[in-house]
Amino acid sequence: MNWNDLFHYNPETGALTWKPRTVDLSKGRGCNSWNQRYAGTVAGMLHHTGYVSVKVNHRKFPAHRIVWEMHNGPVPKGMELDHKDRQKANNVLGNLRLATRSQNNMNKVVPNKYGFMGVSTARKRFTARITVNGRIKRLGTHDTPELAHEAYKRAAVILHGDFAQY
User: Fold this and answer.
1) Do 48 and 126 have their domain in common?
2) What is the DSSP string of 63-110?
3) Residue 28 confidence (pLDDT)
């Protein structure tokens, strides 16, 4: 599907707006009434997951995927789209990047009761650990959650690169 036939993209906000339909796109049925109602309006709605989705031909599509494909073509097989700033509704093209499932998971915040990623308790001490390619790597035990988190941050930069979050 050529998304550029259906939508205008606002590079400042990441929003998609409906273009007026032509007779050939509407298959000759109701294009005037559709245009009066929808042309120029923001396309899509915020889904309960936090992502914006757009319905085209009775099928829902993630708005971030439409934005990506409008500018870069199809998402390669085995790849996903990641929102750099973790804001699922921010579909500005510069906020989107290709990622593997593992890289996309690196860009998630996993809150815990200490307020630090990668920290848990072990016998009155604090353990630091990080997940790499689906495997947990232990980073040692520390006297405070802050020290354990520092170990996590150092490892995240080395192991996760641009996708490191802490």
Assistant:
1) no
2) HHHHHHHHHH-SPPTT-EEEETTS-TT---GGGEEEE-HHHHHHTS--
3) 55
Q: Which helix (H) or strand (E) holds 147?
A: helix 145-160
87's CB contacts (< 8 A; 6+ apart) are 95
pLDDT digit string, tens, across residues 7-28 = 999 999 999 999 998 766 555 5
Domain edge (last residue) among 77, 99, 121: 99
Instruction: Say which CATH number the domain at 116 has.
Output: 3.30.730.10
Verify that 93 and 133 share a domain, yes or no: no
Q: Which two tokens stand for residue 47?
A: 């889904």
Q: To the nearest 10°, the Cα dihedral for 152, 157, 161, 166?
A: 50
Give 147: exposed, middle or buried? Use CB within 10 Å, 0-12, 13-18, 19+.
Answer: middle
Blockwise average pLDDT, block size 10, the chain, 166 residues: 92 95 64 84 93 93 97 95 93 95 78 79 86 87 90 88 77
